[in-house]
Design brief:
The structure is a single chain. 50% of the residues lie in helices and 20% in strands. The chain is of the alpha/beta class and 714 residues long. Strands 13-14-16-17-18-19-20-21 form an eight-stranded mixed barrel, surrounded by four helices. Strands 2-1-5-4-3 form a five-stranded antiparallel β-sheet, with helices on both faces. β9 and β10 form a beta hairpin. α2 packs antiparallel against α3, α3 packs across α5 and α5 runs antiparallel to α6. The chain is elongated and about 125 Å long. The model has no long low-confidence stretch (mean pLDDT 84).
């Protein structure tokens, strides 16, 4: 099947190519590199499916790790390179459309499971080889037994020539004979070993069932048993073995001796421990990584009744600036120093520190009284960061933002706890940083809702979930309807109708405001054309006009002028039917490049209104250079006019603004008019038009039809 360039299959193949190039040099195979890549491609596809699956299947990921052994990638370096590829490229090539934090978290769990599967498969492969040896040795048992009865010479040949350690003891546990391989394992003399009792080889790490199985064997209730067992050598080191002990019977079938077969597994055990350490610890700082942290957190959350946990989620403030200015090498040294300081903060029982990635760290404390302990831990972390860190002769001040989650075990999952801590940490960062905040379920819910709305925005536009309501603009002099302001709404499937304050900032942040704004502009102008066709010039003031809000992002978008021209021409509406509203704050300090699109639109005949005037603290002298024809006075100036008598200071301010605007040939529109007394006072002060609930709330276009019809018929 030919993969579409840039499509999922193409990205999957690129991931398989990177993986094969990394692992092929350390793989013992007769295949060529391209042939090896084809062998890895199904494994890459399985990893992609695991990453994107609705539920996480640990066994699937373990099978991928085990499949590396089947592909003859048995060198530990092959696992290390595979985990590096999964960490760096799996989410990049196979999960670019999903939630990155969740996919990164799942990628870490995949790596851990792959490492476990690799180690298990390597162990099983080795055990299979051992079993072959053991089978040969077991077959030799019969020969040994016969040799004891028939020929000491033949027994000695088998006994001494075996590649595995062999020892014979009586049923009281007295060691009778050992072969050379066993002597080499223990590093002692034959006299030293033959003088010992089997029971003297007990070790603190013996499995609970080890000596129970031994007792069953010497009683004759068991023929053999197999365990993994540690022995102390005479030099103080530990010997790890795969131990098989069998019962030897005499010619009459009575138990007589016990035969021990040992294989030295010390190096393989150390390799497994190293693989485990590398899979669960951060390579840069040596701290536990995300995988090990989640294991500990899951254990803490599943503790018994009365147990609690406390978690501090730390993100360094301004770390990107350090990386960008001093380089990644300096950033890495900074992270190592921070990790050392954090490690010194978590020394009490039940405390640990881990690095999740980048400049994000977590500290965990557990026990019955974590309410106070987690606050103390956060204080220690903040104090540990106070002292500057010296990097390349520079004293760097390091600060951090911490989100704290504390609570009883058993109520939340690790993912839920970490999500709450992450949200809380960003709340601390938004408050200025260098501080810690406690988790707030209501704030978490709002943040989760914001995230859900953000991810749903693109599809909402495609599904036509947005609609527009119109609020009339009324002339204060004669009460005629002069037009309407277009106000976009979102009919969300779960949350119902959402006002612009709930989603416009999210659209600004994601860049969706540009296509959404273009849709609002086109729909509003189309509605304006319908109004003009239906009513024409319904009074001496001329045809109805539509006001459309422009966001700062739209204002700086290079396609603003051309989009507006295209929509006007396509709908056949004259430019004077359109008024674009721009907030005062968006034009504070605006240079000529930012104002140029507005000037071009104004020259075409489009009215430009300065919205929320009076809230941006702008220099009034700037009004002379702005291409605006209308000031929309913010409602905060006129709220006091709802009561009688009105605040004389507010009256003077509004009167001054109106006088200034009219002297500059600017019309004045007032927002938020809610009472007749307020409307009358604004008319006396000279305001031109108004909008607010006194006239009509925002509604469907048919409501404006009715108002305009009443106005036209008197």
């Amino acid at each position: 099947m030919t993969a579409e360039p840039g499509g999922p299959e193409d990205r999957l193949r690129r991931f398989a190519t990177i993986w094969s190039r990394a692992v092929f040099p350390v793989t013992s195979t007769s295949l060529t590199r391209p042939e090896f890549e084809e062998q890895l491609l199904p494994l890459a596809r399985r990893l992609s499916e695991i990453l994107l699956a609705h539920g996480f299947d640990t066994d699937e990921a373990r099978q991928v790790g085990a499949a590396l052994i089947d592909a003859h990638s048995t060198d530990p370096e092959a696992l290390t390179r595979s985990l590096d590829c999964v960490d760096a490229y799996l989410v990049l090539y196979c999960g670019e459309d999903g939630p990155q934090d969740e996919l990164r978290m799942r990628s870490s769990r995949i790596q851990h499971a792959m490492a476990a599967g690799f180690a298990q498969a390597l162990r099983e492969r080795t055990l299979a080889e051992q079993e072959a040896i053991a089978q040969a040795a077991l077959r030799a048992q019969g020969v040994v037994a016969q040799a004891l009865h028939a020929s000491e010479a033949r027994f000695r040949a088998v006994f001494e020539g075996a590649a595995i350690g062999i020892g014979i003891a009586d049923l009281e546990g007295n060691v009778l004979q050992v072969n050379g391989a066993l002597l080499r394992m223990f590093g002692g003399s034959e006299q030293t070993l033959r003088g010992r009792k089997v029971r003297e080889w007990a070790h603190p790490e013996d499995a609970p069932q080890t000596w129970r199985l031994y007792e069953e064997l010497v009683r004759g209730d068991r023929e053999h048993y197999h365990v993994e067992k540690a022995f102390n050598r005479s030099d103080g080191t530990v010997l790890w073995t795969n131990l098989t002990v069998s019962l030897l019977r005499d010619a009459d079938g009575e138990p007589q001796y016990q035969l021990a077969l040992m294989e030295d597994t010390t190096e393989r055990r150390l390799l497994n421990l190293r693989l485990r350490y590398e899979a669960t610890h951060d390579a840069l700082t040596g701290l536990p990584n995300r995988t090990l942290f989640f294991e500990r957190l899951e254990k803490a959350l599943s503790a018994g009744e009365g147990q609690r946990f406390g978690l501090c989620y730390l993100d360094l403030d301004g770390f990107k600036t350090i990386n960008d200015s001093l380089g990644h090498s300096a950033g890495d040294r900074l992270l190592v120093e921070v990790a050392d300081r954090l490690q010194s903060c978590a020394t009490a029982p039940g405390e640990m520190v881990a690095r999740l990635g980048g400049d994000e760290f977590v500290a965990l404390t557990t026990g019955p009284a974590t309410q106070r302990e987690v606050d103390d831990l956060a204080d220690r972390i903040m104090n540990a960061l106070v002292t500057p860190i010296s990097i390349d002769g520079r004293e760097l001040m390091v600060r951090g933002s911490i989100g704290i989650v504390e609570g009883p075990a058993g109520e939340r999952t690790p993912a839920e706890v970490l999500r709450s801590a992450d949200i809380t940490m960003y709340r601390a960062k938004s408050a200025g940083g260098n501080r810690f905040e406690l988790a707030d379920p209501e704030a978490d819910a709002r943040a989760i809702t914001r995230h859900g709305l953000t991810t749903a925005l693109p599809a909402a536009l495609d599904r036509n979930e947005f609609f527009i309501e119109y609020q009339p603009l009324v002339h204060l002099g004669d009460g005629s309807v002069r037009g309407a302001e277009a106000l976009v709404r979102w009919l969300h499937p779960q949350h119902g109708v959402l006002g612009p304050d709930r989603f416009i900032p999210l659209a600004e942040h994601t860049g969706l405001i540009v296509p959404l704004g273009r849709w609002v502009l086109e729909e509003s102008i189309r509605q304006a054309r319908e109004w003009r066709e239906r009513y024409g010039e319904h009074d001496s003031a001329g045809p109805l006009r539509i006001n459309v809000n422009l966001s700062p992002c739209q204002l700086s978008h290079p396609g603003l002028v051309q989009d507006t021209v295209d929509i006007l021409e396509r709908t056949g509406v004259a430019p004077d039917a359109l008024c674009l509203e721009v907030t005062e704050s968006a034009l504070i300090g605006a240079d000529d490049d930012l104002l140029k699109p507005l000037r071009r639109l104004a020259e075409m005949g489009v009215d430009i209104a300065l919205d929320d005037f009076g809230t941006g603290y702008s220099n009034l002298a700037n009004l002379r250079r702005l291409p605006v024809s209308i000031l929309k006075l913010d409602r905060s100036f006129t709220q006091s006019m709802q009561q009688f008598p009105a605040d004389p200071v507010d009256l003077k301010i509004v009167e001054g603004i109106v006088t200034l605007a009219h002297s500059l040939d600017l019309a004045v529109t007032v927002e938020g008019v809610e009472t007749g007394a307020q409307a009358e006072q604004l008319r006396i002060l000279g305001c031109d038009t108004a909008q607010g609930w006194y006239y009509a709330r925002p509604g469907p276009p048919e409501r404006l039809h009715e108002l305009a019809l009443v106005d036209a018929t008197g």
